[in-house]
Amino acid sequence: MFTGPSTYASEVDSIMLFIVASSVALLLIITVVMIYFVFRYNKKRNPVAENIEGNTPLEILWIAIPTVLVMFMFYYGYVAFADIRAVPANSLKVKVLARMWSYSYEYENGKQSDTLFLPNGRATKLDLISADVNHGFFVPAFRIKEDVIAGKINYLVLNPKELGSFDIACSEYCGLNHSLMYSKLVVIPDADFKKWLSDMPKDTIKIAGK
Amino acid sequence: MTHQAHDNSYVSYLDYKGKHSGIWAWLLSTDHKRIGLMYLTGIMLFFVAGMSLGFVMKTEMLSRGETLVDAQTYNALFTLHGVIMIFLVIIPGIPAAFGNFFLPIQIGAKDVSFPRLNLFSFWLYMAGGVVALSSLFLQGGPIDTGWTFYVPYSLRTNTNVSLALLAAFLLGFSSILTGLNFITTVHRLRAPGMGFFRMPLFIWALYSTAWIQVIATPVIGITIVLVIVERLFSIGIFDPALGGDPILFQHLFWIYSHPAVYIMILPAMGVVSEIIPTFAKRTIFGYKAIAFSSLAIAFIGYFVWAHHMFTSGMSDLARIIFSLFTFLVAIPSGVKVFNWVATLYKGSIEPRVPFLFVMMFIFLFSIGGLTGLVLGNLATNIHTHGTYFVVAHFHYVMFGGTVIILFGALHYWFPKMFGRMYNEKVATVSVILIFIGFNGLYFTMFILGYMGMPRRYWDYLPEYQLLHTISAIGAYILIAGILLMLHNLWKALRKGPKAVQNPWGGVTLEWTVPSPPPLENFDEIPIITHGPYEFPEAKGVK
Ligand code: HEM
Ligand SMILES: [Cu+2]
Predict the structure, then answer these.
(1) How many domains does chain A have?
(2) The complex's ipTM?
(3) Nearest CA to ligand 1 atom 19
(4) Which ligand lies nearest to the CA atom of residue B92 in the structure?
(5) CA dist B199 to A57, B108, B202, B206, B273, Å?
(6) Model's pTM, two decimal places?
């Protein structure tokens, strides 16, 4: 239903729509019924109240229906989530290096870059490495994030299906310039990516080889 | 304090002369009502301080780049705002102020079980407040870690983290002691005939809350000590550079701080269960369901802490289990909302000011709860975690829920506590301003968050400009409403007309004693023969 830069992103949006639609329905029911009662059973119209202590079938119903509803929500979330945790066999591997207050990326051949170039149509496993405190690797357009925890390597799978340039932010507070810790994800055609990857400036090779 | 006697036949708790005089008649008083009132004063002062910091933050966010303060100051602002609002306003909040004042009265007791311990809790609260404030001015400067104190940043920063943590430690002790006191009081001091199922629901809520305070708070105490030790001696508990584990800190922190959100909300739910029957003039719908759902929330609430950590790299299994429990804990809260609305059915409703606060609460709290479903769901959580969506969600729950009911409780019990009445028209105007401003301020944040605006950001991308501007205007309207409300109450306190004993026609025990109540509440301990919400004039009373 939605078109996002990845299948996963559209899935998240559909789940969001499902939750928001159910929530709006529930909120409307609660609010409208509440306001209706306040008018209908106003003191002027209904000078004598009636004591009703409960109604067991009704109470069971309003426990059961929301329970079923939230179990659906849980299930959809779980299925979509399981998807992004699975690492496809042929995926590209890139290291994300986070430090106060910038990102850089290192590819398997040792090439380093300040911008995350990725090939279109191929899954990439990102290993998240912090040089200092915790950060949060967040690509809003892809509806994806994972914390970059000091002393621990987390990972994330990104599977773009659209060319373009997307913001990468830091979503875990990391001090002074946390709000400036932006970087870019650029998705390019696979052939261009291969060319870019093998095209190593001399100094990069030196750094990688040291 | 220059209150004249309101009635010549008795001396109210505001006027009696004890051993001490002047300010000491308050600071050394073991009367639960005076202690409640002192807490209320402290809480409202800290609230205004926190609100002022919020005002500065929203003004900074009016435009991109530096508008009013630099990044370091902004980071200190949201940290202080969070620490004040959480530890000094809403955790003590309703239990410390209104619980202290009304728990003994509602169960027909003369005081709490341990009045001196109660006073000691208040001193700890003050000490915590003083230490927190002093951390601002001592060397090192105001903390900039966020109210969550996440390591390793909180180990690295040069700001006064240890002192702020010490403040939280003292406040935690205050909370534990209040909890102990309330549990004992509920068990030991109920009036003859008041079985557990004849207690007002506010008491059920305070009782459930007290158990969380006693069981969960020690965990944060220990965690705080560990962080201080780590900062001072670099032992290697949390610091990965020394072989420690930063995720361990997050677990420990949330094992307390998640149950703590129920410490914040359950008492508010209790107040709602008081106000609704009083203004609908009928008994509550599903008394036992509401009472047990408090216990259920208190219990399940222990097993959802890691839903704050879905992106921290926990095992996938852990993420799935915590997501499941999170959805389960939503049910008892939903049940309560349905019961409250059902209580209006066939009532005889008089929507006066406290009731308006309750209606506002039901709307705002429902939004807070329902957006919690977005955060409980694994897929949508991953996207919205750490963004303005979360900021909106917790303000809807904590502010729209707890603080709105703190205000509601203040308007409900004001005539009882002070023996004076406020201007209801002005109060109604303030309710409307608060409602409009609140939604302007925070609803925009849901959208900002889903668009990808992270929280704790001093600066933002151009596409977020419009929504931030609307949000700031909402904040100004909200703050105007709150100031109007406070002004109205302040005026009433000084020269409001005298209040009668039972202005709303309530039937719980506090409405059977004079306004303001005398020192030991009751001349004669009442004998309870029926449930808490039996209005004699309603149809179908047994
Ligand atoms: C009175 C008006 C209020 C305003 C204008 C306001 C505004 C804000 C703003 C702008 C932020 C920071 C957003 C960010 O940069 O991430 C914030 C954070 C926060 N607020 Fe409020 N707020 C208000 C009241 C409250 C209340 C009543 C509570 C709780 C009872 C509360 C609890 C918090 C907490 C816990 C944080 C998180 C701090 C952190 O990130 O460490 N606020 N608020
Ligand atoms: Cu960062």
Answers:
(1) 2
(2) 0.94
(3) B82
(4) 1
(5) 25, 10, 8, 11, 12
(6) 0.95
